[in-house]
Design a protein that fits this description.
Cupin domain-containing protein, globular, about 120 residues, RmlC_Cupin_sf, mainly beta, UGlyAH_Cupin_dom, Jelly Rolls, 9 strands, 9-stranded antiparallel sheet, RmlC-like_jellyroll
Length: about 120
Amino acid sequence: MSVTRIIDFSQQQTAAEPCQPKPERLLSGSPKQTIQNHYASSCGQFNAGVWESGAGRWKVSYSEHEYCEILSGSALIYDGSGHVKVVHAGDRFVIPAGFSGIWEVLENCRKVYVMFEQN
């Protein structure tokens, strides 16, 4: 395999696709979001890219494992018991599959994501 097959996010011309939390998950705000999925494996289980969101609060339920690196902004992640994790630029963490809770973006938040979906 050639080095030309390496995916360099800074060299990709991937269009930012608009998205929003589903209405039934939205708790407050109207967060406009974009996703630039720079890589998708042929099996469909592995994806990597950049996500961005405006302020808002919504319910989440993860069927995939997700590595996150916050590039800018800040957010709160609440678990089902109300415990909170504050994340901001420079933070790196993994959200395991099976996590359910709430994401609350406080100020425009941009992150690199790497997701693995189990079968």
